[in-house]
């Protein structure tokens, strides 16, 4: 199935509810993302951000409503690994890489292919595959560390490697949970630039708590509160919204009498 063209919805969330033993983590949530977007999800703890990502990748099944991917794929009918094959890649907050393998080997293992783990590791790459690997190495800024063991990388470099591993799967939609957490200032800057580079070809949804990072790199922001959408728009729209200031930033807006 081909990816939606830019300007068309790649994901539609309609009336979504998730109930955990009586606690509604998501409430009648409607949400849309167009192909080619870089969308940031923000909100206070417990707003439902991670739960929403969990539903999108198949980890959590909705109690009500639906999530439609690429026009016709009802996400609730598929398991996590099936959705990965259909084009949804998920990265959790803590990096997960093969620490004893090299950076190059980690990327090669992640390449979209119909081969087992061992055969993928020892098989020779074709020139086309090698070009793809080198392209991703350059994109994530680890071309000079291709032969280094992944365990020797800094925290930020491991995060970039895992993003590169996701990209080797050729997903149409990337779900990233706090990709800049724990990074130095320079690593955070490079991560924001990497997200913008990726969004030239793929759609990205990012859950993020670092508001400075959001201010610097967000294109469109969705604010969640108590399991539903509170506000959506540019960062300027969000910062000027009185309700967001009250419930998310924790201050009541004083008005003139």
UniProtKB/TrEMBL annotation:
Annotated Pfam families: ABC_tran
Domain named ABC transporter: residues: 11-251
Molecular functions per Gene Ontology: ATP binding
UniProt keyword annotations, A-Z: ATP-binding, Nucleotide-binding, Transport
Superkingdom assignment: Bacteria
Matches recorded under InterPro entries: AAA+_ATPase (IPR003593), ABC_AA/LPS_Transport (IPR051120), ABC_transporter-like_ATP-bd (IPR003439), ABC_transptr_urea_ATP-bd_UrtD (IPR017781), P-loop_NTPase (IPR027417)
PROSITE patterns recorded: ABC_TRANSPORTER_2
Record SUPFAM superfamilies: P-loop containing nucleoside triphosphate hydrolases
UniProt name for this protein: Urea ABC transporter ATP-binding protein UrtD
Organism: Paenibacillus hexagrammi
